[in-house]
Specification:
This protein is an alpha+beta fold. The protein contains 16 helices and 13 strands. The strands form 5 sheets. Strands 10, 11, 12 and 13 form a 4-stranded antiparallel sheet that branches. Strands 3-4-5 form a 3-stranded antiparallel sheet. Helix 7 packs parallel to helix 9. It is elongated. Pfam families: DUF222, HNH.
């Protein structure tokens, strides 16, 4: 009945049966390595049986079986409860075994490798976790190829290393899966300063990968032991305009705007979300400041790598150097729009075939001119000052829009992130200044001159 499982276990047991844990101290290094491999092979066979048992208990506990449910016969409601009763393992482990068996069923190639004892639970989990969400949207043949490749890697690499390869396959199987995760992350972002206690203030928060990368780039420059000895965190006084800085709560008080037929709604971000955006803006501005320490001769820079075809199409995924999780190709295009990009053509062997010049990047002189004209983010109600804004191409570069003052305006990071999907529309007026309108469904305001709302303008008259 046990078939190959029983035979494999018997063979493995015979190899280790004469060795007790206390006898391991008598083994040579070579013998100890061999013993570790044999014991692990035995453990994989046992884990395969454990998951097989969990799967079968789960199958025999289907709610449609009624009184014939195995769990009910054992006095439990769920399959993991029955497994806990029979095996005397913990409730957490019993639950994990059932869920792992269910996930394995979605990847038959991985399930077969576990049954053969090729993969253990930890190795299988390293593959299953990243791929589970992608398998339903990817081609069957491509999923099978991914699984076979990851199984081969698991033969020579530890589970933690296989995770990185599985994450790479996840992007290949479902390149569009990054974008919804990224959008959900933007909604969850926050930054919070706690109350002072014992002379300390607790800082907490969650930042999207892109924002965290901007912070990390500047922080790395300041803690870099090779950075210049004299550093200071001060505003960039090269800006021609010096609007008021956001208050301590970073916009915690909502702008006093009334929604009418012609007036757009007020900023809907929460105070915590605004704090996160301000923190990101401060660090992004610091990266451009001349007094910020350099790293390798260059100011703190976010290095984003994205395939050319994905960059041009605005779909797929991109990687930020130093960050574990990807960002969308659309976000990579937005970063390039604000900070410029450099084309690097790489051959199939990894050899660099061509290194282009930096393109589509507003110059410091253009940023100063925009600061004078726009004064800050041009979205109504947004108080982000010019030096903390990003440069936005009104007509995108991909559509032939030039990097000229007549095609540029200032947006804060959040409104730059949502300008293509949000309710605001921007165009350049005949007088060479940006105009803005708000559109939602069949409702729209008239085109009006974009006027930055400084913090002082939001204070009601006495």
């Amino acid at each position: 009945m046990m078939g190959a499982f029983g035979q494999s276990i018997a063979e493995a047991s015979a190899c280790v049966g004469s060795v007790s844990p206390t006898a391991l101290t008598l083994l040579s290094d070579d013998q100890l390595v061999g013993a570790a491999q044999v014991v692990e092979a035995l453990a994989r066979q046992v884990e395969a049986l454990q998951l097989g048992v969990a799967r079968e208990v789960d199958n025999r506990t289907d709610e449609t079986l009624g009184e014939d449910s195995l769990a009910r016969k054992l006095g439990a409601k769920k399959p993991w409860g029955a497994l806990e009763t029979v095996t005397r393992t913990s409730a957490k482990d019993a639950h994990a075994r059932v869920l792992e068996a269910r996930r394995l069923a979605k990847l038959p190639v991985i399930e077969a490798a576990v049954e053969r004892g090729v993969l253990g639970r930890a190795q299988a989990a390293a593959i299953i976790e990243p791929l589970t969400e992608s398998v339903d949207r990817a081609e069957t043949a491509l999923v099978a190829a991914a699984c076979e490749n990851l199984i081969e890697l698991s033969r020579v690499l530890p589970a933690t290393a296989v995770v990185e390869a599985a994450e790479a396959w996840k992007l290949i199987l479902d390149p569009d899966g990054v974008e919804p995760v990224e959008k959900a992350a933007v909604e969850k972002r926050f930054f919070r300063l706690g109350r002072a206690k014992d002379g300390l203030v607790k800082v907490s928060g969650l930042l999207p990968v892109e924002q965290a990368a901007a912070l990390r780039a500047v922080l790395d420059a300041y803690v870099n032991p090779r950075a210049g000895a004299s550093v200071a965190f001060t505003p960039n006084t090269d800006e021609a305009d010096e609007p008021d800085e956001p208050d301590e709560a970073a916009g915690a008080t909502k702008p006093l705007l009334v929604v009418t037929e012609t007036q757009p709604p007020a900023d809907t971000r929460s105070p915590d979300q605004k704090r996160a955006d301000v923190l990101h803006a401060v660090f992004a501005a610091a990266a451009r400041a001349p007094e910020t320490p350099t790293m390798g001769g260059a100011h703190p820079t976010i290095l984003v790598v994205v395939p050319q075809e994905d960059f041009e199409a605005g779909r797929g995924a991109a990687r930020i150097d130093g960050e574990d999780q990807p960002i969308s190709a659309e976000s990579a295009r937005r970063i390039a729009e604000s900070g410029g990009y450099q084309e690097v053509i790489v051959g199939p062997t990894g050899k660099i075939l061509n290194l282009g010049d930096t393109q589509r990047c507003a110059s410091p002189q253009q940023r100063r001119a925009l600061a004078v004209r726009d004064k800050g983010c041009v979205i109504p109600g947004c108080t982000m000052p010019a030096r903390w804004c990003e440069v936005h191409h009104i007509v995108p570069d991909r559509d032939g829009g030039p990097t000229d003052i007549g095609n540029l305006t200032l947006l804060c990071w959040f409104h730059h992130f949502t300008i293509d999907t949000g309710p605001y529309r921007i165009r350049m007026g005949d007088d060479g200044t940006p105009e803005i309108r708000w559109v939602f469904g069949s409702h729209a305001t008239e085109w009006v001159k974009a006027v930055h709302t400084a913090k002082r303008d939001l204070t009601p008259a006495a």
